[in-house]
């Protein structure tokens, strides 16, 4: 039934022949509607899981966990403390079974799966993935897993975008854009950050400051639609409540520079531990894959006994840091604790995102740095500690995820304040530049050149940027003959040469016609034919394709394909002077030479971390 509807719709679209703008407006709205609805369903599942396990089971077992003070206080002395580590184990078991037996690509933080689908899988995401990801992530996050909602909702939205592309049988390029638009719709809705979500999906694909610009308009339309629907369903509210903040004193940039450098150090440790825990601890374990998230949940639960603030996403503690309610010592402990908690949860194969934990780490680092510097520097050099928390959030995530633009926009939208853009730009730039060798998203391509999604585009662009003057064809000296030359003499001249066509010139050396060896076969194999009596004019073609020295190699490849030839004469104009004979080999050789030079340059750039 549904398939019949899409078939009719596709036929109607073909008849109407809507333009590109109209097409993406329609697709964007449709993807946005389902993305917003998917975000709402995901939040219902997450709230149910959280209500049962966190607000129900945990807070009933350990009431102190609901009202933690702003200083270090372990839960191990609380009644029923021994049940606390078992709650994340439940989420790990559920997630492990769902993912391992249902959709292995749904493990981990999800955003990498979307990136991989775009670059390497032609925009394909299995239909079951969004369903498995919804349930698995709700189980992990709802039972206290140190994970966020960004990865799951990105994969959920991207899954629908991929499904829509399959149903409508759109080209691969359009399906890839639908995947990104779906991811943007989900992120924009669930974080109520429409612009940041749209920018995030276009920026997160590449490690080397590039945007997938073609996806921007579809992502913006889908984001706005999803955001509008989601806020209509759940209401409009900011994730964080802060007073108005403004950057006014240039002296404060010193403190923000210090924060940026600390984000670099913490970010490198975070990424190395995150993937080191996965590759050197969880993967080698000789236990079933489905049980590893449960082990990660157990380790998290034991850590929670000592540092309960690392439970769940931790948004309430970010808010407390903004309100100056957390001690410096606690915030420093939480930086390290959250790094381990997130590694236990996600590196073990648990399902959840890395955005919320990254915000948490950056917030605690910013809050602690601001309070420490307030005791060291003169007042005019020290920003408001709340500002340091917010800038730490944006700068830290920008560094570890390589999304400087999206990060500062999303944090500004989530706090409802754009007054800190300048310091956040500074901290983000420092964090991105000095962590250039590291990224939380290991599936990111270095640049568009390195993405299989753009390999064909790149070849075309590269060839279009090379003219015939970049080849050696202008240096060649092909053999040409006069119209009265006998074929016997021509064959002697051509003996031992690889030239497959012969230009025929007049007394002024202007090309008047062409002889192609393919056309000579019938003549050459005729019996009792005197080749001294047949002259070039008898077999030459006066209507022939040619190329000028000013045209590019992309045009040359097109002509080779169009005329089914391997050689083209290079003339200044029709019946002009012969400048050379271009072959497919010349084009391929020039292309390979250019590619070698680019690869050498990219290798040098990569050794510097991907930034020029």
The CATH topology of the largest domain turns out to be Clc chloride channel
Using only C-alpha atoms, the radius of gyration works out to 32 Å
What is the helix/strand order? Answer: HHHHHHHHHHHHHHHHHHEHEEHHHEEH
Instruction: Give the low-confidence spans.
Output: none
- For the record, give the distance between the C-alpha atoms at the N and C termini, rounded to a whole number: 54 Å
Shape: elongated
The quaternary state of the protein chains shown equals single chain
Explain how this protein is built.
The chain is mainly alpha-helical and 612 residues long. It folds into three domains: 2-234, Clc chloride channel (Orthogonal Bundle), CATH 1.10.3080; 250-445, Clc chloride channel; 465-592, CBS-domain. Helices cover 60% and strands 4% of the residues. It has helices at residues 2-16, 20-61, 86-102, 111-120, 128-142, 150-168, 172-190, 194-203, 216-234, 253-282, 292-306, 315-322, 328-346, 355-374, 385-401, 404-415, 421-434, 455-464, 487-494, 517-524, 536-539, 553-563, 584-607, and strands at residues 481-482, 501-505, 511-516, 567-571, 578-583. The strands form two sheets. A three-stranded mixed beta sheet has the order 1-2-3.
Characterize this entry briefly.
This protein is mainly α. The chain contains 23 helices and five strands. β2 (501-505) and β3 form a beta hairpin.
Task: Provide key terms for this protein.
612 residues, mainly alpha, Clc chloride channel, CBS-domain, 3 domains, three-stranded mixed β-sheet, two-stranded antiparallel sheet
């Amino acid at each position: 039934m549904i398939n019949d509807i899409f078939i009719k719709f596709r036929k109607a679209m073909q008849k109407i022949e809507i333009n590109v703008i109209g097409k993406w407006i329609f697709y964007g709205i449709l993807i946005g509607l389902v993305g917003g609805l998917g975000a709402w369903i995901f939040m219902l599942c997450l709230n149910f899981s959280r209500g049962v396990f966190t607000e129900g089971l945990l807070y009933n077992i350990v009431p102190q966990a609901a009202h933690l003070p702003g200083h270090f206080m372990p839960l191990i002395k609380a009644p029923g403390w021994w049940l606390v580590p078992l709650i994340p184990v439940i989420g790990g078991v559920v997630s492990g079974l769902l993912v391992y037996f249902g959709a292995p690509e749904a493990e981990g933080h999800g955003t990498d799966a979307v990136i991989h689908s775009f670059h390497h899988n032609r925009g394909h995401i299995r239909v079951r993935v969004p369903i498995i990801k919804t349930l698995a992530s709700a189980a992990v996050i709802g039972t206290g897993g140190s994970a966020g909602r960004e990865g799951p909702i990105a994969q959920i939205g991207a899954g629908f975008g991929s499904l829509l592309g399959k149903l409508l049988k759109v080209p691969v390029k359009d399906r890839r854009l639908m995947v990104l638009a779906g991811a943007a719709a989900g992120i924009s809705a669930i974080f109520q950050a429409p612009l940041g979500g749209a920018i995030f999906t276009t920026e997160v694909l590449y490690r080397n400051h590039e945007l997938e610009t073609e996806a921007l308009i579809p992502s913006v339309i889908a984001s706005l639609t999803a955001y509008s629907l989601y806020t209509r369903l759940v209401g409009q509210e900011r994730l964080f409540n802060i007073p108005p903040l403004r950057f006014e004193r240039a002296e404060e940039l010193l403190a923000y520079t210090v924060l940026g450098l600390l984000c670099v150090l913490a970010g490198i440790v975070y990424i190395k531990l995150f993937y080191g825990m996965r590759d050197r601890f969880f993967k080698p374990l000789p236990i079933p894959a489905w049980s590893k998230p449960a082990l990660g949940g157990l380790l998290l639960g034991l850590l929670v006994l000592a540092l309960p603030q690392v439970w769940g996403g931790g948004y309430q503690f970010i808010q407390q840091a903004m309100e100056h309610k957390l001690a410096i010592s606690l915030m420093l402990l939480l930086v390290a604790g959250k790094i381990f908690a997130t590694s236990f949860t996600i590196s073990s194969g648990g399902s959840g995102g890395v955005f919320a934990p990254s915000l948490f780490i950056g917030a605690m680092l910013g809050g602690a740095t601001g309070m420490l510097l307030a005791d060291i520097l003169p007042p005019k050099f020290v920003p408001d500690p709340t500002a340091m928390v917010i800038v730490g959030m944006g700068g830290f995530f920008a560094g570890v995820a390589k999304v400087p633009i999206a990060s500062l926009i999303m944090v500004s939208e989530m706090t409802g304040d754009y007054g800190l853009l300048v310091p956040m730009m500074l901290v983000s730039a420092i964090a991105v530049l000095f962590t250039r060798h590291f990224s939380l998203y290991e599936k990111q391509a270095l640049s568009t050149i390195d993405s299989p999604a753009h390999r064909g585009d790149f070849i075309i662009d590269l060839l279009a940027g090379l003219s015939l003057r970049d080849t050696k064809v202008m240096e060649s000296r092909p053999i040409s003959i006069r119209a009265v030359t006998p074929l016997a003499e021509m064959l002697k001249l051509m003996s031992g040469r690889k030239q497959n066509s012969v230009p025929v010139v007049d007394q002024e050396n202007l090309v008047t016609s062409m002889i192609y060896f393919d056309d000579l076969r019938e003549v050459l194999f005729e019996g009792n034919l005197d080749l001294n009596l047949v002259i070039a004019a008898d077999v030459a073609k006066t209507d022939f394709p040619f190329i000028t020295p000013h045209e590019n190699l992309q045009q040359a490849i097109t002509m080779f394909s169009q005329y089914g030839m391997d050689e083209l004469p290079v003339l200044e104009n029709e019946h002009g002077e012969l400048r050379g004979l271009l072959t497919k080999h010349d084009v391929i050789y020039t292309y390979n030479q250019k590619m070698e030079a680019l690869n050498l340059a990219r290798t040098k750039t990569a050794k510097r971390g991907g930034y020029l």
